[in-house]
Each structure stands twice: as C-alpha cells, then as structure tokens.
C-alpha cells in the first residue's frame, strides 16, 4: 500500500467510491419517485371527485356494445308476460306515411309492454268498535288485518304497510335521506308525510322487526362459515363502528362504540368454532376456536401498492413481488382443484411445495422497513393463508362482507350516520333484514307488511325457506 503508484491509488479510490455513488444514485431515484407520487396524491385531493375513476382511460378502448359472431355473449331477451291485463288493437294507418298510397293489411304481430299503473293513494277509514271488558274493566277495541297500528285520536291518520315498506327500502337500502324519501312518496304517489313522521314510522318498523333480528343474531353463531368486516360510523357525531357478519344465507349488522374483539364476540360469540374468512385485523384472531382464512385479495392489493411505491426495478420490490406470485399460485391451484384438473395426491404435493416456498421467503433477512412490516404480518397470518386449499368451497377472500358493507358506506357518504342510539339500532335491524331478504330472494315488502299488520309481536325466522 505504501509503494502504490498514482495510477493504482486512483483506481483504488474510484473503486471505494463506486459503492457510495451507486447508493446515492438509488436514493436520488427514490426521492424523485416519491416526490412524483406525493405530487399526484396532492393533486388528486384537490380535483373534483370522479366516481369509480380508479385508473386512467384506455388509449385505444374497444368499441362499446355487443360484438358480432361468437363474441356476442350470452343471448337473452325479456320473456313474454305469463298473463296480459289489457289487449289494445293497433290498426294499420289508412295511407302510407311515405307515398300516401292505400295500405292493405297482411298480418297481425304482437308486442308486449310492461308498465307501472298510474299511482293512486288508497285512503281507508276504519270504523273501530270499542268496548269494555266486563271482567277487568279495561278498554278493548277491534283490529282489522289491514291495519298497521292501533293509534287513534291525534295519531289516527297513519301510513299503510306497503307505503312504510317502500319508505324503509328507500331510506335503509338505497340510502335516501328522510327528506328525499318523503319527496319520492309525495311526487310519485301523492302521499304527504313529514321527515319527522317518516323517521318515527320507520323506527316503528324496526321495533316490529326486533324479534326477527334477534333470530338472525342467534342463527349467525351456528353458521358453518362467516365473513366479517367493519367500517367507521358516526352516532351523534361520535365515532362508532359498523360491523357486518355474512354467511351464505343471512347477514347481520351491528353498530358498536369499539372495534375490538369484545364487540365482534357480542355478535358472533367468543366460542365461534366455524370458518372465519376475514381480513388481517387483529381483533379477529381472538376467535381461537375458529378455523381462519385470511383475505388473499387484501394481501395482493398490499403487495401491488408496495411494488408501485418502491418502484418496479427496485431491489426492495422483490419481496412483495415474490409474495404476490405465491399467493396467485395458490389461487390458480384452487381453480385447478375445482375444475378437477389435479388429483388429490397432486394437490397435497402442490400445497406442501407452496407453503414451503412461503416459509423460505418469510425466513429471509429484510432491510426495507415496509418489507419487514409485511413479513411480520404474514408470519402472524401464516396459519390462515392457505386454508382455502384444504377446505373445498371455502372462500379465499372476504368479498361477501365487502359487498354487504357497501350500502352502509353509501349511506355514510350521503347522510353521515345516525343522530341517536335509537337511530343506530333502527339502522342495524332493518339493514340486516333487507340484506338477508336480498340473499334469499325474498320480498322485504311482504315481510314488512306481515310484521306491521300483526297486532302482537311476531317473529319471522328468515333461515326457514319462504312459502311459495
């Protein structure tokens, strides 16, 4: 070292500086990329909201509409109505609209039109006969099967069951505020009702449906597979959490003050021992008797975001890219199993190889903090990553809960939440019955009418098939 020439010394110094210079170049590239992402995030926060515009439009999109030939898609048309209420004869015009010549009739063809009848408010007067019990002396009044309440006096003018059922669907299912719901009833049917009166009427529907909701709460605990999720909710301006628990047959909503295990266990039961398909929220790991499946879609989305944030060519992106490939290979293996393209022995071997590959990846030493956090999360979720490969029919994602919680998210954007605890209770009861009826292809209107017309508390078990 003491006898090195100037050329040797220069070469040594250039070699020593090569590594720091490469690191500096990488850091500069990371800074430029992060600055670009930051500017895009700031711009997106200021621009007008464009619903569902997640990505930029395609440069050369396909022509819209049906494609000719084999690419047309599934062919279908509206079926001919099974019954016709009115037949209208449409004669040919006496003269041709183009040349004015005489027209000779050659055939009769049929066209069908399904129309909504002209709306009309049905106003009914119930002459209620009142008596007195000779035994106890209490007042007794009659009740007709078409009545929705026993109110008389200043509350004698009420809203019928069908109108209340429609208002409930507009408000609790479609997310219309009370004011707009009242406007729809007024403009479409000529039925006048104030926002306060509508709020009280819908709350009465919820009280009638309370026993049926309790049945759903009891049944969800015995379902073989449940998919939960939660989102923020406001009650009286204070932060709450809206929970949803979905099975193949029923859906249960609940609004609680917290987001922990105790709130989830209040609905599902701390001893739930079925399949639990959930995201990575730590509260769900408290169900120690359940068989867990972590949502693969959440993990894939996290990997894609990390690759985009770190840069496609960055060495730090190799870890999330490998994890993404393993998870996608698991989904492909599931599809091969469901399509009978792999034997039972082949499936077992492939599952073992897939899990061994994941274990090797998680055993690596990682320097990037983001990769370390992902690896730590995957180690906690390791036992729940590939449960769907061993249990045929088990979902690999929590899509059921994501779909079920969407109506609440829409309602939260429209009117923010509930003002009172009673309003939150009404929301959970009616939303549960509405979503369950949709799952089972039931008519919520018929269910609500049945509950409102019953003079006594009535329980409808939605897990029992409806009578046709």
Question: How would you summarize what this structure contains?
Answer:
The protein is of the alpha/beta class and 468 residues long. The protein has 13 helices and eight strands.
Task: Break the fold down into its secondary structure elements and pairings.
Elements: H1 6-46, E1 130-132, E2 139-141, H2 161-173, H3 178-189, H4 195-220, E3 225-235, E4 238-246, E5 251-256, H5 261-268, E6 275-278, E7 291-294, H6 296-310, H7 318-338, H8 344-362, H9 369-380, H10 387-390, H11 399-415, E8 417-418, H12 421-439, H13 444-452
Parallel strand pairs: 3-6, 3-8, 6-7
Antiparallel strand pairs: 1-2, 3-4, 4-5
Structure, explained:
With 468 residues, the chain is an alpha/beta fold. Among the domains are: 125-294 and 401-455, no CATH class; 296-390. It is 46% helix and 9% strand. It is built from 13 helices and eight strands. It has helices spanning 6-46, 161-173, 178-189, 195-220, 261-268, 296-310, 318-338, 344-362, 369-380, 387-390, 399-415, 421-439, 444-452; strands at residues 130-132, 139-141, 225-235, 238-246, 251-256, 275-278, 291-294, 417-418. The strands form two sheets. Strands 3, 4, 5, 6, 7 and 8 form a six-stranded mixed beta sheet that branches. Strands 1-2 form a two-stranded antiparallel sheet. Helix 2 (161-173) packs across helix 3 and helix 2 (161-173) packs across helix 13 (444-452). The longest helix is centred in the first third of the chain and has 41 residues, at 6-46. The radius of gyration is 32 Å and the shape is extended. The N and C termini lie far apart (96 Å).
